Amino acid sequence: MFGYTDEAFDTLEKYISGERLAAYYRLSRGDQWVAIKLYEKNAELSGALYGVIQGLEVTVRNSVHNLMSERLGCDKWYDRFHFANSERAEIDLAKDSLLGKGQPTTPGRVVSELTFGFWVKLTSRIYEHTLWLPHLSRIFPIRVNRAVVHERFVLLKTLRNRIAHHERIIGRTRPLPTEYEQTIEAIRWINPIVADWVEHQNNFNELYAKKFPKKRPQPAAEGIAAAAPIPGE
């Protein structure tokens, strides 16, 4: 079991950095123990939510890829469709990245190499008449407005990027349970079976509900067993 000694706290602050911990100290009103526990909980919840967002990202990109391959009659549909310069540049960058790693630029690899931001951009207004109305709207069996889809994807992309950069996701304006439910809902827009599976194999709700002692456990005196911390608030 890890010992939360004064030396351990000083070491953690040094290597995590005071700047990164500053937001947790604000949330804990300066309580060192609570700040560290909040940091730990942020890491746990980030891991859980990243898996859910990954489920969304994979579902979106493969849905687009499968549909566009069928409708354009080519699995390299991204080379045939007339993208805006910014998206065309992202496709070229993805191919160059694969070549730089000595990997072939197969359709599956190119699709996987493209960022979530690329797929989000395909639901933006500039593609409403060329991509959304004739093609992508068919990905969603439940009729969903393009603007609603795009707004949701942008919000979830922001959450994804915060997690990817190890930033704080707890204590923000949008409650994490809401972001979790909105991610599952976005997957459900495309396929309810995939949404149920992602929800089933994820432990976000369990981790979110887990409490930690608000008081730092005191080290046991020599020869005396330490009392177990009281769970909950």
Task: Write a concise keyword list for the protein shown above.
233 residues; 12 helices; elongated
* Proportion of residues in helical segments: 55-70%
The total count of helices amounts to 12
> Largest sheet at a glance?
none
The topology string of helices and strands comes to HHHHHHHHHHHH
* Structural class estimated from helices and strands: mainly alpha
Taking all residues together, what is the mean pLDDT? Answer: 91
Radius of gyration: 22 Å
In one word, what is the shape?
A: elongated
Beta content = under 5%
Low-confidence stretches: 222-233
Count of strand segments: 0
Span of the ends, CA to CA: 22 Å
Give the SSE layout:
Elements: H1 6-16, H2 18-27, H3 32-72, H4 77-80, H5 85-100, H6 107-113, H7 116-121, H8 128-132, H9 146-164, H10 176-190, H11 192-200, H12 204-209
Description of the molecule:
- There is one protein chain.
- This protein is mainly α and 233 residues long.
- The protein has a domain at 24-74 and 123-209.
- The protein contains twelve helices and no strands.
- The longest helix is centred in the first third of the chain and has 41 residues, at 32-72.
- It is elongated.
- Mean pLDDT is 91; it is low at 222-233.
Please sum up the structure shown.
This protein is mostly helical and 233 residues long. Helices cover 64% and strands 0% of the residues. It contains 12 helices and no strands.
